[in-house]
Amino acid sequence: MTKNYLLEIGLEEMPAHVVTPSINQLAQKTAKFLKENRISFSSIEKYSTPRRLTLLVKDMSEKQPDIDVKAKGPSKKIAQDADGNWTKAAQGFARGQGMSTDDIFFEELKGTEYVYIQKHESGKDVADVLTGITDVIESMTFPTRMRWANYDFEYIRPIHWLVSLLDDVEIPIQILDIKSGRVSRGHRFLGGNVEIDNARNYVEKLRSQFVIVDAKERKNIIRDQIQTIADDNDWVVDVDEDLLEEVNNLVEFPTTFHGSFAEKYLEIPEEVLITSMKDNQRYFYVRDKAGKLVPAFIGVRNGNSEYIENVIKGNEKVLVARLEDADFFFKEDQKKTIADYVEKLKTVNFHVKIGTMYEKMARVHQIADHLADLFKLSDTEKTDLLRASDIYKFDLVTNMVDEFPELQGVMGEKYANIMGETDGVATAIREHYMPSSSDGELPDTKVGATLSIASKLDSLETFFAVGLIPSGSNDPYALRRQAYGIIRILDKYDWSLNLDDLQDYLVQHVTVPANLDLNANEEELKSFMVDRIRQFLNTTSVRNDIIDAATSGSILNPIVMISTANVLQKHVADTDFKTNMEALSRIVNLAKKADFRYSKDLKVDSSLFEHPSETQLADGIQKIYDDHIRDVSQLYDRLTALKDVINSYFEENMIMDKNEDIKKNRLTQLVIANNLIVRLGDFSKIVIK
Asked: What pLDDT is stored for residue 516 in this prediction?
């Protein structure tokens, strides 16, 4: 016969963003606890509200199965003395197993004899096992924690009650001074305390006290009520799933309502209106059938429909107050010029160790100028890019962005358009923040993409220069996200960017404060960028060993590394892949024996050739150089096409010839070939089957 177990942790209201991760964590930890304690179950149902985390474990076994355990102890030579008497070590081992030395037997393991004890363990009743569930509760982790009263114990919020029921029987547990029982608490204002007679009746018992404990059910209620309001008013509502999740975790008994505001506020940029409603007030905004924003909103109340008109009026009053502020800021901001705002940036720190935001823009201008040429932007695009780089942070000191920080970039675009900047400049100001997350939207324009890369590069260079390098999970300046954003943008536009060459250019041409040395932590920055390239490739179907090979090449260029990984992955299943890799690897391995392999002026003396294969290899490699092959796929095809020539070369020629001139000439030939091959990565890291 199986049983159901109910565990409810009653708390003060938790932050909305913590509720779902917390109930998922509790379920995972509980499942692990039960499996480790040999208690079977069919499923774990999860229930959560802002004030409770609840699990219903269904169809649990009544007890643990009996097991036979063979416990291993010390080696025989430690367990017995020279006369064969049991030592204290053996006696202690037996005592610890609840047995005596009479139960000890010997078994050999890897050539050494050890003492063992075989014992039978009767399974515990599930009720006895469940008293240990407090370990699960206390082991939970949260992004923020708090203490209360005089206790040192920390949790997401103070615990006020516990319910622990196995079917209809209380399982006593205790955390601090809170002892479990069968009494739960209903809605803070509409309900009261409720006694849970049986675990399986929990959901309906709480429903009677105006608490919908099933988060999915609450979410569907909200969604359906929003749709009903939209249908009744001929509106269109694009339900934001993140907002729906947040609102759902703020209420226990949802009732949806709608309010309105004056049409005059529609003159404020749409983004400001949406931010005021969605981000600040947690309202859903609405549109008409033509897609135009409507002066109305939909909110969700934590309660029933009684006195809903008062609720609507109160929410309208709060929203209008925010819109009045926004309208004032929008008009006030337009009384100044972009030049006024840029001048003000001279007093705004980018970072105290690095300098002002104005100085950052000056560096970004220099970086953007160089990137525009590398990425082959048109004259018009370059003009827009350089203008944007001179002003792109100006909106940070506007009233609107001060009030709504989440609108930085967005308001920059709006004001730039109003103040006469070109569309290219205005769009780039908004797009330079992209992507705003690891999988966020990328810039749609080349100007915006280039400005985004330039700004992010400056942040990486300067923060690394002053030693503010991410470590572990600590990354307060989001440098990982910015570096990953650069990789994603380069990939989208297929822009080649040699990071070694770029580093040299920045050191020589970008003006930085005297305290900044862009060469400082240079190797750490390069390694940091390679890690982001690996992160990007890990989102694809490329094998890990091929990622290792591709990111270990001689050219620190994200696009080359990504292309190399894709090319190698494409060919890894070829029937001749193994023999191709072996042939090219022979060149790489022998080229390492040349102490001059890093020299730039290498020439082969054909008069020292003794066999046709030397001429064939020299001509084949030279032809690749002459054709200026840059495409990785073409380079792979051209190099692997020389496989037979390479094999003949090694069959006919002794590389380490006794004649020093011939030896050096052949090593030189291999080094020249190696310098092409290593563009394809480090083949030694590829697992060839």
From this structure: 87
CATH class of 561-685: mainly alpha
| Count of beta carbons in the 10 Å neighbourhood of residue 324 | 13
Q: Percentages helix, strand, coil for the chain, rounded to the nearest 5?
A: 50, 15, 35
* CB proximity list for 104: less than 8 A, separation 6 or greater: 73, 79, 86, 90, 93, 94, 115, 116, 117
As a whole number of angstroms, the longest Cα–Cα distance in the chain is: 102
d(CA 87, CA 74): 10
Instruction: State yes or no: cis peptide before 435, omega within 30 of 0.
Output: yes
Judge contact between 653 and 610, C-beta under 8 A: yes
Token representation of residue 452: 């985004």
Q: From the first residue on, what is the mean pLDDT of each consecutive set of 10 residues in the chain (689 residues)? A: 95 97 98 95 98 97 87 88 88 88 85 86 90 96 93 96 97 96 96 97 98 98 97 96 97 98 95 93 96 97 96 97 95 97 97 96 97 97 98 97 94 97 98 95 98 98 94 90 97 96 94 88 94 95 93 89 94 92 92 74 88 92 90 93 93 90 91 90 86
Peptide bond into 612 cis (omega under 30): no
- What is the Cα–Cα distance from 527 to 4, expressed in whole angstroms? 53
Which residue from 158, 142, 161 is spatially nearest to 24, judged by alpha carbons?
A: 142
Query: What letter does residue 538 receive in the DSSP assignment?
Result: T
pLDDT at residue number 599? 64
What pTM value is reported for the model?
0.82
Distance CA 351, CA 359 (A): 11
Structure tokens at 35: 């499996």
pLDDT the model gives residue 66: 86
> Do the Cβ atoms of 411 and 400 come closer than 8 Å?
yes
| Strand-pair partners of 43 | 58
CA distance 415 to 438: 28
118's tokens? 């075989």
| C-beta of residue 238 within 8 angstroms of C-beta of residue 44 | no
For CA atoms 376, 378, 381, 383, the dihedral sign is positive
Residue found by looking up tokens 């572990």 in the block: 472
The distance in angstroms from the start CA to the end CA of the chain is: 52
Buried b (16+ CB within 10 A) or exposed e, 183-209: ebbbbeeebeebebeebeebbebbbeb
Q: What are the φ/ψ torsions at residue 647 (nearest 5 degrees)? A: -60, -40
- Nearest alpha-carbon partner for 549 in 676, 688, 684, 689: 684
